[in-house]
Amino acid sequence: MKTVALPRRLPAGLNRMPRNYLPVLVTGALFIAMFTAGGIRYEGFATGQIILNVFIDNAFLLVVAVGMTFVILTGGIDLSVGSVVALTTMIAASLLPSTPSFLVILLVLAIGGVLGAAMGAIIHYFEIQPFIVTLAGMFLARGLCYTIGTDSIPISDPTFTAIAQTRIDLAPELWISPTVLIALAVVLVATYTLHYTRLGRNVYAVGGNEQSALLMGLPVARTKIAVYTISGLCSALGGLLLSFYMLSGYGLHAVGMELDAIAAVVIGGTLLTGGSGYLLGTVLGVLVLGLIQTVISFEGTLSSWWTKIVIGLLLLVFILLQRLIVTTGVSRER
Amino acid sequence: MAEAILRMTGIGKEFPGVKALDGVDFRLLPGEVHALMGENGAGKSTLIKVLTGVYSIDSGEIELAGGRVAFAGPLEAQKAGISTVYQEVNLCRNLSVAENVFIGREPRKFGRIRWREMRRRTAELLRQLDLPIDVSKPLSHYSLAIQQMVAIARAIDIDARVLILDEPTSSLDAGEVAQLFRVMRRLKEQGIAILFVSHFLDQIYEIADRMTILRNGRLVGEYVTAELPQVELVGKMIGRELAELERLDERPPARTSDTLVEATELGGKVAPFSLTIREGEVVGLAGLLGSGRTEIARLLFGADHAGTGTLRIGGDQVNLRTPRAAMARGVAFCSENRREEGLVPELTVRENLILALQARRGWSRPVPRKKQDELVAKYIKALNIRPDNPEMLIRNLSGGNQQKVLLARWLILEPRLLILDEPTRGIDVGAKAEIQKLVVELSDGGMAVLFISAELDEVLRLSHKVAVLRDRRLVAELPNDDTLTTDVLMETIASGGAR
Amino acid sequence: GSGGDTTAEGGAPATSGGGDSTITMGFAQVGAESGWRTANTKSVQESAKAAGIDLKFSDAQQKQENQIKAIRSYIQQKVDVIAFSPVVESGWDTVLQEAKAANIPVILTDRAVDSPDKTLYKTFLGSDFVEEGKKAGQWLVEQYASETGDVNIVELQGTTGSAPANDRKSGFAEVIGADPKFKVIASQSGDFTRAKGKEVMDAFLKANPDIDVLYAHNDDMGLGAIEAIEGAGKVPGKDIKIITVDAVKDGMQALADGKINYIVECSPLLGPQLMDLAKKVLAGETVPERVVTEETTFTQEQAKQALPSRQY
Amino acid sequence: MKRLAWPAGILAALLLVNLIFTDHFFQIEIKEGHLYGSLIDIFRFGAPLILVALGMTLVIATKGIDLSVGSVVAISGAMACLQISTLEAQDSIGGVLGAIGVALALSIALGIGNGFLVAVIGIQPIIATLILMVAGRGLAQLITDGQIITINSDPYKLIGGGYWLTLPFGIIIVAVVLALIAFVTRRLALGLLIESVGGNAEASRLSGIRSHGLLIVVYAFCALCAGIAGLMISSNVSSADGNNAGLWIELDAILAVVIGGTSLAGGRFSLGGTVLGALIIQTLTTTIYSIGVPPETTLLFKALVVTIVCLLQSPAFRAKVFRSRRKPAPPTVPAGEKVTVRT
Ligand SMILES: Nc1ncnc2c1ncn2[C@@H]1O[C@H](COP(=O)(O)OP(=O)(O)OP(=O)(O)O)[C@@H](O)[C@H]1O
Ligand SMILES: Nc1ncnc2c1ncn2[C@@H]1O[C@H](COP(=O)(O)OP(=O)(O)OP(=O)(O)O)[C@@H](O)[C@H]1O
Ligand SMILES: [Mg+2]
Ligand SMILES: [Mg+2]
Predict the structure, then answer these.
(1) Do the chains contact at A217 and B271, CB–CB below 8 Å?
(2) ipTM entry
(3) Range of the domain at B124
């Protein structure tokens, strides 16, 4: 005789954990699997430094993706991030020779925040689709870059150079850059914000159903403007990290980074429709993208086009597996 | 009489093409339960939304506790002490139950949300409403009725002077309603003013002290409940007498026609059950919240996959993988959850109405426009859908009228088995009688109907037999003979079929 | 190793890829944004094979950050020598210092970096974009030496902000700026592509009735513009004189056909020279700080002769 | 059609700007036996964008998005040119038709792949199509071997660069495709089904709509449009450029769709609006070239125009900014009664 498993009332924590975190767990597991596979295939791959390098090389993307996560959780999207990153490097590089570095840092962060807030306000008050508003923001920021200059400007400010070239040794043969610490701090603060503050919960509510959130008396306007401001701030901070990484400002920096950030967020299991997802997923998403790149450069024999094809294929395999495991996992749980 | 806490005077509100409110006066006294009455589309919800700042008013003024107010939105209204449950369940289904109750006013310490405290308090609150569910699960996990209870829990927990409940009981069963009323009485004693909307007249007479009646966006009058007999109330609401209800009250004779649907040990999210439905037979499903009625319906329609058992429709064994497959077998299903599973909000009334018909014909054989217009006109008239403009976006219709459109969507298919899950939810007395009459006519014409309703009266009135569910298990199948009364049904539900 | 006879000696790095004696070179290419770049990649790959060098190749898809990542991963993989074509001049110090710390010599190709610390790389092999712009300008000045009226020039720039676009523009402007009769009446970005070149030229033709000269930052845009000019009922090479840069095969063909008047060569065939330099560097030999690729210019006559032997 | 009034007005305004700043902008003459002029150029160069945007409209109406169109443009052009370049006689019509067939078949196959990932596997559209966006560029370059394939085929040239009855042939293709889509979606019932799936997928499923099949068809159709656009773009310059053909066209297409009044949230779509949107974008581009906006400020200019366009189109903006002028006077307000308006 067949029986039906009735949903029993498990202790709250136990019951809640697996279903909600499943996509994130699966993503994490697949990441580890990919790393292991790389280690078997390539000599010198399975070292801790490889993972650390992924962090070092993607610290700026991580920060930008954190901001993007906030936006996507409300059901919006921010296409301007890449350009704002570029604008930040450009402003920093052009001001640094004559301005103290801490002022420059404050200034670019302010610019990023204000740009974000402005876009958020337009999106909310004039009810224009985020895609378009932030696309205009993308044109604007990129355009401002070129107005400042079309050449790449080197940064030789001592503070910036010092941050750029400091190595923090964790163990012999294992090191990270200060930017990684900054990025991780951002992740921690953002996670706390999302899960332990009203703003964070409002973000999920607005993403779940904006109309309902409004009727429930939540500050929808403030929340929406806040997430775009956060995204702008994160982009500016990401831009600073990129200036540390590159020690230059350039209008063509970070072209298409918005897509990388969106991809990272979505690979991490966050729904573009909003209301569902975790920052941990975003971190994993960034790591996955970074690891794919590492694999490609270890492979080392791919022509330019095969590089693209293989990136696409790896992404496809990853997403298919993720999707497959998550759906079967969920249906088994029911 | 005490000074009114809320006073609305000369309220006017016009939507493009519709005058939803026209010079309406309304006042609410502290410590009273005040019913707002009217047909579908009379303007009840609009009046509430205008009050809480969801819509701006075109004319008139609103005073709260003597001071003039014009809220810019629900947030402000809430801050001023008005707590509201809107008609459609307006909660965030992606958040947990606890969060839905507390979001925006979470218990905090140094700005940090105290999750444990929040869950504890939610569980406590829901226990008062006799709803011992896991509060950490996402709301989407629960049936619509439970969601409705959660919305109520949220509203009554907010510290408010005015509590507004727009059709909170539309999918609740008697037990839940009793719980709600208990809480409402307690709040009333504390001097809170309660505005209550419901199409269940019994409930109104049970709880309301006074009532205001609207018709077509105009004020009909303000009455003390005890002084206004039911018949008169109905007359004032719909502007004519209502005789149909009584006619239906005779018991339908049992059907002996051919078996149309035969489920054997069919199981999925419900325990395996066996059920037969004959042609022209109305089978009622009775049970409490979350007892699994909806899930049985979904299994028969192929909306969920059956894990076990067999299903025969019209003699053939079928394996329904999609709703489309069920439709091909002549099964139609009108869902209880009209917002998530019914409406396509951006489409017009006409398009929503012909959607299933068009889907069945496929993309390449459009329903001719003339045919569409005929069908739409016919059902707008038959179900008294208002406003009678087929080109209006369905999301701009009042809740009850939306429900009628969805019902019509399935009726035009002329299915062999029509599954109605809470079809009269949010529908006014007049239209409810129309729909009940329709069900009887259809079944007389040979259509089988699976009828789900939280209102046991209604189930009894229409069904040839009643299947009773408890805890997602079919526990009894009772012929609707003279011995079957709502009390017997209640008892069967409570005892789990040990009759 | 197979076929590799160059053993690391002298100033060679202490580490060696895989521990055998084959030279491993990490090459971080900009991308494959044009036929020119593909030819460049091919040249590097083929000559690496010919020289018995184990080439690790990565494609940065036009992004500097990707190139930095690739270089960092080469350091991690402990290659013997790193070569790369910088996307832009600035911003390489950090990663080059890491390479230096890991004792891996670096060779720049195609384009320099602007780091003040010249010890970060061994040598730079490549063309000079400013010089190319100047050559184009000089030819123009000579052609119109006897002209007294205004010479109306339109310019099709490369991708906004890209180094070749910036430099070819400024080199050209510098030379023609000496004589006020040369007027650049319109200048737009054609993104280095034929399609854009055609589109922009079409607009130019309508907005400016008398154009004497077209200067395109690469052959492809010039080829697109030729179609637009023909579509407007004018004769390219006659009614409008055309100067381009690169000298890819299609361009040379058009030059030989008389549709283009002058091409400044920018050779992508850096591979053999690069391998040579790599071996020398690893063998501890001193190499010049700057190796300029041998590049020429082509007139229509020269093109007819050179065409049969063009490789790319 | 009232809905199209705003995009149409904006297009008119843009054209007006040209009238003021550029001589001969509205001049159309016959040259070399065909129409010649800036307005014709807008159609000629706008044709691929219109096509891609039309396909994108349907995808967006289903609540999806297709980022891969640019890559499909490149692949299709590359495939066709590769086939033609191997022909003995590049002018043979049969050979060219064969090449076109192969290219379009490949495009459709890729679109079906997208649709499969979205509909059957259930991957979010943006990520499902991002895969092809990345890999597809590689594929295009693989086909061309990273080179630019130059061909010399008059029949092929006709598609994107030729004229028929003095009209640019591309426009005729667009007109045919537009008529086809309009017929299938508005005369037949496909449009309703698409709007329904985009408006409420679950309700549509429960109404018996085969949404999987529908989604696959829509993505395949979008890819087909992109494929045709790819043929046009490569034919226009008689060469295939795997890396640059159709670069960023997805953004322009999405922009066109949204300017045309179709919401990215799915549901209602407007084909006419999309065509207007694409024309606005192309006019903007042409304007930038003609009035001589320097390349460094091009993007600023674009940002400005896009912002103005979107603001003007937004009813909320109009209501808030022009409120004083257009405040509806409610007929029922007795004189002297105060009116509160929500701000
Ligand atoms: N946003 C809107 N746009 C246009 N018309 C609207 C809108 N909202 C409501 N209406 C119209 O206003 C009228 C009153 O609707 P309302 O929702 O207040 O009715 P109701 O009394 O609550 O009915 P029900 O009992 O069905 O809930 C209806 O005719 C409805 O069609
Ligand atoms: N008390 C409960 N505890 C846990 N889960 C519940 C409870 N009640 C309902 N559910 C869940 O709600 C879902 C909906 O049940 P279903 O809709 O079939 O019930 P129903 O009889 O139609 O009741 P309703 O009147 O609420 O619509 C089921 O998936 C079930 O898991
Ligand atoms: Mg209502
Ligand atoms: Mg139910």
Answers:
(1) no
(2) 0.90
(3) 6-228
